[in-house]
TrEMBL record:
Its main location: membrane. GO terms for cellular component: plasma membrane. Pfam families: MS_channel_1st (PF21088), MS_channel_2nd (PF00924), MS_channel_3rd (PF21082). The chain crosses the membrane at residues 25-43, 64-86, 98-126. Gene3D superfamilies: 1.10.287.1260, 2.30.30.60, 3.30.70.100. It is a multi-pass membrane protein. This is Potassium efflux system KefA protein / Small-conductance mechanosensitive channel. Residues 113-180 form the Mechanosensitive ion channel MscS domain. Belongs to the MscS (TC 1.A.23) family. Keywords: Cell membrane, Membrane, Transmembrane, Transmembrane helix.
């Protein structure tokens, strides 16, 4: 009974389903290929994690480089493993050209976006205009890159919202990378004071405020520029450098504004508000009769 069952099962699995090129596909060959492909994707995913972990242990390699290297290694292993699986299953590799032609027709009819995103993902991994951990802005989307997959890139905003952006957007659109080389960025904070204020005294007060904040770097030094003679105020620009508030610019601005307001008030420096002087001329209005 058991031998008969297995014999019938083998006969059933070996029934030809279709022919591609010179290769004949049976149910067993398809199951065999699917099982090995599943193992291939699982093992290469583990290999990618191991490569990333090893590279992250090196002090001179940042997160983006390790993630990109791990992804490239995985894609190479998948490509090689896929060809080896087909050969072990007895598939004539010349049949792949037929499959490629069929896929080409599919791409022409509706897979352009998927193909474009996949190719863009490969370009991103090799050229590295962005990498995991970068602070970027694209199409009015601002956030940190947390994952780069073959089709799309995941960005997390300051509100902890995950935004999935197709990879082609990073190739065809203008991308602002706030941390392309490092996380050192400069922020400019405008401050308006009364015309009665001493400009040099205001400059010293703003520099004191910058030096008091722990997130502002000592080198490069903060700068204060007298930017404009506005209608109601002298406009100063406080320029500060930071590498710890790259992803939290609003927090840094707010904390510095608190310190600036406190110091200006302590030194008796007035922060003006827009005002207009209205002059009324008295006299008689002559009427023509």
């Amino acid at each position: 009974m058991i031998k008969t069952f297995f014999s019938q099962l083998l006969d059933y699995l070996n029934i030809p389903l279709f022919v591609l090129g010179k290769s004949q596909f049976t149910l067993w060959s398809i199951v065999y290929i699917l099982i090995l492909l599943t193992l291939l994707f699982y093992l290469t995913a583990k290999m990618r994690v191991w490569v990333v972990r090893v590279l992250r242990s090196k002090k001179n390699i940042d997160v983006g480089v390790s993630e990109a290297t791990g992804s490239i290694v995985r894609y190479v292993l998948i490509s090689i493993g896929f060809l080896m699986i087909l050969q072990s299953a007895g598939v004539d590799l010349s049949a792949i050209t037929v499959l490629a032609g069929a896929l080409g027709i599919g791409v022409g009819f509706g897979l352009q976006n998927i193909t474009s995103n996949f190719v863009s993902g490969i370009i991103i991994l090799f050229e590295r205009p962005i990498k995991v951990g970068d602070r970027i802005e694209v199409n009015n989307i601002l956030g940190d890159v947390v994952n780069i997959s073959p089709r799309a890139t995941t960005i997390v905003s300051n509100d902890n919202i995950s935004i999935i952006v197709p990879n082609s957007e990073f190739i065809s659109s203008t991308v602002i990378n706030w941390s392309h080389t490092d996380r050192l960025v400069r922020y400019r904070i405008p401050v308006g004071v009364s015309y009665d204020s001493d400009p040099e005294a205001v400059r010293d007060i703003l520099l004191e405020a910058a030096a008091e904040h722990p997130g502002v770097l000592k080198n490069p030094e903060a700068q204060v520029l007298l930017d404009e003679f506005a209608d109601s105020a002298l406009i100063f620009i406080l320029s500060v450098w930071t590498n710890t508030f790259t992803e939290r610019p609003l927090i840094l601005r707010s904390e510095l504004n608190y310190i600036i307001f406190k110091k200006l008030k302590a030194h008796g420096v007035e922060i003006p508000f827009p005002q207009r002087d209205l002059h009324i001329r008295s006299g008689e209005i002559k009427k023509d009769v």
